[in-house]
Amino acid sequence: MGQGEREAHYPRNIERKIRNVGLPLALLTPERAKVYGFNFENWKKAMDKALTADLKKIAETGRHIAVALEKAHIAHLTAPNGTDLKFELGRRPIHIDDGIIDKKDITNKSLDANLPAGSVLTTLIETSANGKVIFDQPVHLMGRHMQDVEWLFKDGKAVSMKAKKNPELISEQFSKASGDRDRISFLQIGLNPEAVYGYLTDYNVEGAVQIGIGDSEYIGGKNTSSFGMAATLSKATLEIDGNVIVKSGQLQSKPRG
Q1: d(CA 12, CA 2)
Q2: In the Cβ-directed half-sphere of 159, how many Cα atoms lie within 13 Å?
Q3: Mapped to the 3 state alphabet, what secondary structure does 157-178 carry?
Q4: How many CA atoms lie within 13 A of 207 on its CB side?
């Protein structure tokens, strides 16, 4: 969805409290599997399994992590591949995608859910990111894959954007984009214990860490741009104010019992 569409769509949704459900399940077709090089039957099994996750447990875990994010200040993201990135959280809205949009979600202007579900998201202080992030999961676009996407940040701005495979998939869109196209935008943490990596919904996998750049106004951030992009780490360690939320791709901050 482009910036103009978002500007027309989201304010009215919030005003009218219109709920939206995204269906990544609808992406599951033999034709798309062939284009991306996925085994269709394996993809179908993975999608079906992700849909079996207990939404109440996902919601509980999401609320638990949201408490930490709501009070957070400094985050530190690292990974064995050389990722070392620090950024700040600023008591922004927390969006928990547990597949259910209840009255509290509507009050918090969290009107979107997905099936399969399973993530918690918040926007970041747009001028705060410093360091490097190298994503170990590919970015899938237009039937092709960008591998080993790497962003180098200084004061929140991506001063370098690289990829070892198919960097041209995004360079043309980026070069034509306006506004805060190169500003860090959001942090998303995967919550779904039944989801697996390798398809188009890596961000849902329990312990996944996704970082976005570009447009974020529609989710409570301050970036306004015609460009937005996100990529995912599967083996990250995420510390927030010294507390480990994710360790080597494993979610640590979960309710007990």
Answers
A1: 16
A2: 10
A3: EEEEEECCECCHHHHHHHHHCC
A4: 17
